[in-house]
Amino acid sequence: MAVTYTPEFRHKDWVDNVDRVRAAGDNGFNVRFHALEAEFARIADIMDKVSDALDALSQTPVPKPVKFTLTPTLITLTDPWNHVFGGADKPSGATDASGMMSVTLPHGATIRELRACGRKDSGNLSVNLRRQSLAAGSTTELLVGLTLSNGNFDSSAVAPAGAASKVDNDQFRYYLTAELDGAGSTAVVSLTCFQITCVPS
After folding, report:
1. What distance in Å separates the CA atoms of residue 103 and residue 86, rounded to the nearest whole number?
2. φ, ψ for residue 38 (rounded to 5)?
3. Does the predicted model carry a pTM greater than 0.90?
4. What strands lie across the sheet with 172-181, from one edge to the other?
5. What DSSP designation does 164 have?
6. What per-residue confidence (pLDDT) applies to 112?
7. How far apart are CA 107 and CA 142, in angstroms?
8. How far apart, in Å, are the Cα atoms of 130 and each of 141, 144, 156, 175?
9. What H or E segment, with its residue span, contains residue 140?
10. CA–CA separation, 188 vs 120, rounded Å?
């Protein structure tokens, strides 16, 4: 918004021995001083607008959450997932499946939520977001996890607050795991999407 000011008061000089000094009338003191008052009021209004504009510029905008939606592409850990268009299924005849996939998150962002969608007829299915130090032999660290119920599911879990929820790509790598055990050999178990919600720094 442009803030402009155009003066409206113009002083008309009095002439010695011509103009009579008086309060009333079109050329009297009262008219001229009221015109000055009006001019000062316009200046004050402009200053208020300038102040509001400066305040708006100085306020830091609140970061908005960003959702990273991922199609499951799981590298086998012990028993493989069967990949199909748009997701991953438990192979027919299998009772277990486990896999992992790398995720790239913005450095300095805060992890807020993990979400998983799919279907499970039976078995124990968990989807977990983990981090691990870059050092060889380091142990995995669970950041937020989901235990998924039978039937069609669209489940979310909020990440615990704390330093671990802040993404540090200088020190850690981040990945998802999907682990299934105890499913019926003919049961349908499928994963259609993972979603991670982060708040940028």
Report:
1. 17
2. -65, -40
3. no
4. 75-76, 97-103, 172-181, 124-133, 140-148
5. G
6. 97
7. 18
8. 5, 7, 15, 6
9. strand 140-148
10. 6
Tokens of 56: 């708006």
| Among 136, 118, 135, CA closest to 127 | 118
**pLDDT per residue over 90-123, tens digit each?**
999 999 999 999 999 999 999 999 999 999 999 9
Helices (H) and strands (E) in the chain, counts: 1, 11
Exposure string of 47-66, with b = 16+ CB inside 10 Å and e = fewer, is eeeeeeeeeeeeeeeeeeee
Q: Report d(CA 93, CA 48) in Å as an integer.
A: 74
Print burial letters for 2-26: b (CB count within 10 Å at least 16), e (below 16): eeeeeeeeeeeeeeeeeeeeeeeee
Rounded to whole angstroms, how far apart are CA atoms 123 and 147?
A: 11
Q: Which tokens in the block code for residue 184? A: 């019926």
Q: Phi first, then psi: what are they for 143, rounded to 5°? A: -95, -45
Condensed to tens digits (0 to 9), the pLDDT of residues 2-56 reads: 667 677 777 777 677 776 767 677 766 777 777 778 888 888 888 888 888 877 7
How far separated are the first and last CA of the chain, in Å rounded? 28
Please give the full DSSP string across 6-50, using - where no structure is assigned. Answer: -----PPPP-TTTSPP-SSSTTSHHHHHHHHHHHHHHHHHHHHHH
Question: What pLDDT, on a 0 to 100 scale, did the predictor assign at position 1?
Answer: 58
